[in-house]
Amino acid sequence: MITPETASPRSAVAGIEWPAIAAPVGASLLALQFQLDRSQWWSPERLLENQLQQLKKLIEHAVKKTDWYAADPVWREIANQQHPLTQDQLSTLPILQRRDLQNQLPALTATNLPKAHGQLIELATSGSTGTPLKGWETELNQFFWGGFTLRNHLWHNHNFDGKFAAIRTRVGRQTLPNWGPAVSAAFTTGPAVTLGIDTPIGEQAAWLADQQPDYLISHASNLKALAHYSINYKTRLESLNAVISFGERPADGLDDLIGTAWGARFEDIYSAEELGTIALQCPDQPQNYHVMAEHLLVELLDTHGKRCQPGAAGRVVVTALHNFAMPLIRYELGDYARLGSQCTCGRGLPVLTEILGRARNMITLPDGSQHWPSFPAELWLAVAPIRQFQLEQRKLDEITAHYLLDRPLTRVEEKELAARLTDSLRFPGTIVFRQHTRPLSQAGRKFEDFVSRL
Fold first, then answer.
1. Tens of pLDDT along 59-89?
2. Range(s) for CATH 3.30.300 in the chain?
3. DSSP of 413-438, one letter per residue?
4. For the chain, where do the domains classified as CATH 3.40.50.12780 start and end?
5. Quick one: pLDDT band at residue 374, thresholds 50, 70, 90?
6. Class of 362-452 per CATH?
7. Residue pair 337/355 in contact by the 8 Å Cβ criterion
8. How far is CA 262 from CA 203, 227, 290, 377, in A?
9. Half-sphere exposure of 294 (CA within 13 A, CB side)
10. d(CA 433, CA 402)
11. The whole model's pTM is what?
């Protein structure tokens, strides 16, 4: 078993195993980890000071090299000021909306890049809400993404000697010699196997049983379906140590479900395709997510645009500090999260205690008030063997419950489930039911268990 504590870096020099002399990319990854290992313990004030220094450099570049920022006198003034950027100034800067990125991509794309940032790489999101997004990043920015992937492995003490399985979009069924460049450039790893997420759940379960991986990464909704399948059909994954979700808000109780299905621990990564890893679960206090503050400046803003205080939920606004190809400064992601106090682990990295999802995931009551809905899987599984469940609100006084089941619910089951839902949701309206015999989600799209169409 080769854990991060016992692993030696991969040496690129023949005959030299220890101390290792890494290849350039591996050496850079190790150098980055050396810095990250120290900066995670900095005070919040020191982290913010360094973030603002880097942001000032990004703004200067953006004003010189993009039409979007050059056209606005607010950005030009910041770029030209001689004194450091302050947090109060940051709070007054314009918010970049998703529609701006969709409609003004040429204006937001830099006309020239520093040579050391490498080549342009095209970004394309899956469009979880039906609107795909395109953009650009640099090789250097992608290097930082890899650095935080490696940090996650190091934080959670993953066994580099194990087999890593990924069920996701944009991959096929294949076997790879290692875990990918984010890890293998610096360390020797075991093999990796991949499978497309559009593979039927039964085939996924059979594939996993054949592969017997040590680690599995996939979208939360896919992991939930797999766990239910494994419980129902007694699929055994003897070697599985950890299950990692990304790209979606995990449903309530998913960690317990995974423990029941496979006896594995659950880890979640808060990420976005245009930004990379936003926050990782704390290795010491897993109820907390630590923002990757060395790469992203994350703000949580209330309905008035003011910074949230610990305990409050707000809109997630992110600045990508190192993507000079397409500067995303105060980019409103469309998510909501809850801000936490400094973690008791001692790390100074900002804390999110809850990833709430998008505004379209909020329930609206007949009086116009809103809150985040809660309806854990055990609530509906206690009524019928439903394989997939989604709530959709189109009216203030009515919610449609879509369910995947081979047969319709009986009237007794509908009555019982409606009572459970109205109580759990704190919703005084009507619940109507609609049966489906095919999966509710589309391949390549994030699954949302509650969707508001109001």
1. 999 999 999 999 999 999 999 999 999 999 9
2. 362-452
3. HHHHHHHHHHHHHT--SEEEEEEESS
4. 1-8+21-290
5. confident
6. alpha beta
7. yes
8. 17, 8, 26, 17
9. 20
10. 6
11. 0.83
